[in-house]
Amino acid sequence: MLAMIFRLVGGVGLFLLGMALLTDGLKAVAGEPLRRALVRFTGKPWRAFVSGMLVTLLVQSSSATTVTVIGFVSAGLLTLPQALAVVMGASLGTTGTGWLVAVLGLKISVGFYALPLVGVGAFLKLFGGRRWQPVGLALAGFGLIFVGIETLQMGMSRLTDFVHLARLPSGGLAAHVVGMLAGVGLTMVLQSSSVTVAITLTALHTGTINFEQAASVVIGAAIGTTVTGVLAAIGGTTSAKRTALGHVTFNLATGLIAVVVLPGLLRGIEWAQRHLGLDPGATSLAAFHSSFIALGVLIFLPWVDGFARWIERILPEREVALTRYLDDTLLHAPPVALEAVRRALRAVALELLEQVARVVRTDAGPDTARLAALQQALLRAEDFLAHLPVTEERPHPSPSRVALIHALDHLTRLLARASPPDSLRAIFGLPELEPVAERCREIVAVALAGLRAEGDSTDWTARVERMALELSAEQRRQRAALLQQTAGGAWSPGRAVEALDAMRWMERLGYHTWRIVNYLVGPGTPEPQTMLEEESGAIVSR
C-alpha cells in the first residue's frame, strides 16, 4: 500500500513538474514570438480560434494561453470576441496532451529512454548560456512527463488490489455527475487539466476504471481547468472578468452538452473502433476528449459575437474609459503592460485633441470637467509606469518605455495649453493670424483622424510631422511680418504682443501634437535639436 501511494504521488508530481518545466521552457524560448503571433493572427474569430489552438499545442498548457489572453484583453490588444475564440482554441488544443500520453506514454514504455533527456536538460540548464538554458528546461520537462507516466502506471497497476473504482456505478446521470465532480476537484487541486487527463488515461489503461467513468472524469477536467482563468481575472479589469466568464461558460456548457449526448458520443467512438481502426482504451478516450470539445466549438464559434454581447450585458463596463487598460495584474508582464499604457495614452490624446480642436475653431472653450478627468488619467498612467519593473530591460530601458515617457511629457504640456486665457482666445480669429490658425487646425484634424483609425496605416504620421514643421516656419514668417507692421504703426505694441502669444500658442500646440503622434504611433524619432532649443527658450521666458 505504501509503495503504491508513493508511486502515485510521485508519478503525479513528476508529470506536473514536467509539464511546468516544459511550459516555462517553451515560453522562454519562443514566448515573445508566440505572444506576437497570438495578437497578429487573431483578426476574424476562426483565425483567433486557430491561433489559440496552435499556441496551446506548442506550450502544452491551456491555462498559460488563457492567462495570456486575459492579459491581452486587459491591455486592449484583443477584443472580447477574439479572446473568446482564442479560449475555445486553447480548450481544443489542450486535448493534444491526451493524445501524446495515449499514443506514446502508454503504448510505448518510454520512461527509461526519457531519462537521458532529463539529464541533458539539467546540464543545459546548469552550464548552458542564456540561450540554451530554457531549451534545457523544456527537454528536462519533456523527459519528466514520460517518467511520471511510467511511475503512475506502476502505482495504478497495484491500485486495483486496494480500491475497486470500476465497481462504482458507471451508468445513469448520478454516476456521470460523480465522475465529473471528481474531475473538477482533481483539476482544481492540481491546477492542470492535462495532469487530470493523464491520470485518467493511466487509470483506464491499467483497468482501474472503465471507459464511461473515465469519460465523465475527462468532462469534469475540462470544466475544472477554468479555475486558473478565474483566479487570474480576480482584481482585473472588466474585460478580464468577461473573458474568464466566457471561458467558464463555454467549458461548462460544453461539459453539460457532452453529458447529454454522451451515449451518442460513445456510439461514435465504438463505430470508429470498428470501422476506422481506432484503438480501444486510452486512444479512444483521447478521441472522446477532442470530440466533445470540438462539438462545443462548432456550437459556440459561429455565434461568438452574440456570445460576447451576452457577456457584456451581464458584466457592464465599470472602469473609467480612459484608464480601463491600466490593470495592475499586467505589471508582471512588462511588454503587455507597456502596450496597455500606450493605448491608455492614445485614448487621452484623442480626447485632449478634441478639446483643443474646440479652442482652435474659436467656437467654444474647452470642457473644464473633461480636462480635469484627463489630468487624472495622466496621473494614473504616470503611477502605473512608475510601478512597472525594469529588471528585464537592463542595462538600458526598452525603446517602448522611453517613447511612452516622452509621450506622457508632451501630453502633459499639451494639457497645460488646452485652456488658454480668454484674452488670448479673443484674438484667435483675427485675419492676420488665419494662416497660422488654419495650419494648426489641419494638424489637429489629421492627428485625430489618424488616431481614430490607428491600425489601418501610419502614413499620416509623416504628414503630421511635415505640417508641424511648416507651421513652425509659417509662425516665424508671420512673427517677423507682424513686428515689422508694429514698427510701422499698424499695430499697438500691446496688441502685437497678444497676437505673438497667440501664434506661439498655436505653433507649440502643433509641435506637441506631432511629438505625441510620433511617440504613440510613429517611429519615435528623437526631438529635433532646433525645436528643443526653442522649447528650452520658451520655458525660460515663461
Note down, in words, how this protein is organized.
The chain has helices spanning 2-40, 45-59, 62-74, 80-93, 95-105, 111-127, 133-159, 173-190, 193-205, 211-224, 226-233, 238-260, 262-275, 282-300, 304-314, 334-360, 368-386, 399-417, 422-425, 434-452, 459-487, 493-520, 529-541. It is mainly alpha-helical. It has two domains: 2-160 and 169-314, no CATH class; 323-541, Methane Monooxygenase Hydroxylase, Chain G, domain 1 (Up-down Bundle), CATH 1.20.58. Residues 536-542 have low confidence and may be disordered.
Largest β-sheet summary:
none
SS content category: mainly alpha
Instruction: Give the rounded overall mean pLDDT.
Output: 78
Strand content: under 5%
Stretches where pLDDT is under 50 for at least 5 consecutive residues are: 536-542
Quick structural summary:
The chain is built from 23 helices and no strands.
Question: How is the secondary structure organized here?
Answer:
Layout: H1 2-40, H2 45-59, H3 62-74, H4 80-93, H5 95-105, H6 111-127, H7 133-159, H8 173-190, H9 193-205, H10 211-224, H11 226-233, H12 238-260, H13 262-275, H14 282-300, H15 304-314, H16 334-360, H17 368-386, H18 399-417, H19 422-425, H20 434-452, H21 459-487, H22 493-520, H23 529-541
Helix pairs in contact: 1-2, 1-7, 1-9, 2-4, 3-4, 3-11, 3-12, 4-12, 4-14, 4-15, 5-9, 5-14, 6-7, 7-9, 8-9, 8-10, 9-10, 10-12, 10-14, 11-12, 12-14, 13-14, 16-17, 16-18, 16-20, 16-22, 17-18, 18-22, 20-21, 20-22, 21-22
